[in-house]
Amino acid sequence: MTSAIDTDVLIVGAGPTGLMLANQLARRGIRSMIIDRHPGPARETRALGVQARTMEIYAHLGIIDAALSLGRKALAANFWAQGKHAARIPLGDIGREESPYPFLLILGQDDNERLLGDNLRMLGRDVEWSTELIGLAQDGDGATATLRRPDGTVRVVRASWIGGCDGSRSAVRELTGIGFEGAPYEHVFFVADVTADGPMVPSASERSIPWPDPAAMQGQRASAGRPVGAGVIDDAWGPSSGRTTGDG
Ligand SMILES: Cc1cc2nc3c(=O)[nH]c(=O)nc-3n(C[C@H](O)[C@H](O)[C@H](O)COP(=O)(O)OP(=O)(O)OC[C@H]3O[C@@H](n4cnc5c(N)ncnc54)[C@H](O)[C@@H]3O)c2cc1C
Predict the structure, then answer these.
(1) Ligand 1 atom closest to Cα of residue 131
(2) What pLDDT, on a 0 to 100 scale, did the predictor assign at position 232?
(3) Distance CA 45, CA 230 (A)
(4) pLDDT of residue 63
(5) Which uninterrupted H or E stretch holds 122?
(6) What confidence category does residue 218 fall into, taking pLDDT thresholds of 50, 70 and 90?
(7) Mean pLDDT, residues 138-162 taken together
(8) Pairing state between β 132-139 and 142-148
């Protein structure tokens, strides 16, 4: 016999997916609990581009004004290769007449997560940090999750549903045998939060940072005045080359 249900939905993972699910459930008054094994929110930029549909959903959540004031509209992407400006792709009018937000907003993933986390707290919920899912069993009435808490003790939670929002190496997927079809991208990508000197395209929303060979480079500027570099590492510097590219 199974014990009583503690929560309707246990959300595993407080990245953008888990935080969005927690916000949507809270708005609808559905009981949920959200955990993450990390001690707190991520501080690196990671993903940069917020699409129109996300901004429409942010408007429903009431966080669009904060997102727009923190981020920058992308007017163009500038690509650099071997120290030279190789291409400029205009982005300024994508989605015109399709959305109230017909543009790509450059806003780092850390800022997106912060906005979603703040809104969740406003709705009366919060993430339980340093709490890791280590066991999961399903039955006809729901699921039993085993969690390791910050002090190392174990807690068992009964939930009607589990929201597996725990990223690419998902414990939820592994513990339930769901599997993961597909394969990683062949290229090695990088994103770097950097402070850099050098010539830049002179526009507030259209900045590029030169990057040493051999990386093909797209420079962008994220929120809060922090320059961000992103690009693809040349094949000659890929993982099989034996050449060092650093941690980024
Ligand atoms: C360097 C970098 C650059 C990127 N650039 C881009 C980009 O430009 N554009 C783009 O679209 N995407 C980009 N991505 C991918 C983007 O970051 C992911 O798509 C996004 O983070 C996925 O969100 P998520 O919430 O599904 O998962 P995640 O952000 O991975 O969050 C999963 C969370 O689950 C938690 N977790 C995992 N296992 C457990 C467990 N057992 N118990 C409790 N918690 C657990 C983790 O701590 C984590 O906080 C980039 C990623 C990286 C690393």
Answers:
(1) 43
(2) 58
(3) 11
(4) 98
(5) helix 109-122
(6) very low
(7) 97
(8) antiparallel
CA 35/CA 103 separation, integer angstroms: 33
Q: Is the dihedral of CA 191, 195, 198, 199 positive or negative?
A: positive
Ligand 1 and 188: CB distance under 6 A: no
Contact 218, 79 (CB under 8 A): yes
Rounded Cα gap, residues 16 and 183, in angstroms: 22
Indicate if ligand 1 lies below 6 Å from the C-beta of 66: no
Query: Which candidate, 57, 138, 106, places its Cα nearest to that of 204?
Result: 106
Q: Report whether pLDDT(220) > 60.
A: no
Maximum pairwise Cα distance, the chain = 68
Is residue 111 within 8 A of residue 224, CB to CB? The reply is: yes
List of domains in the chain: 7-47+111-176 (3.50.50.60), 50-107+184-241 (3.30.9)
CA of 198 to the centre of ligand 1 (A): 31
Q: Are strands 227-232 and 84-90 parallel, antiparallel or unpaired?
A: unpaired
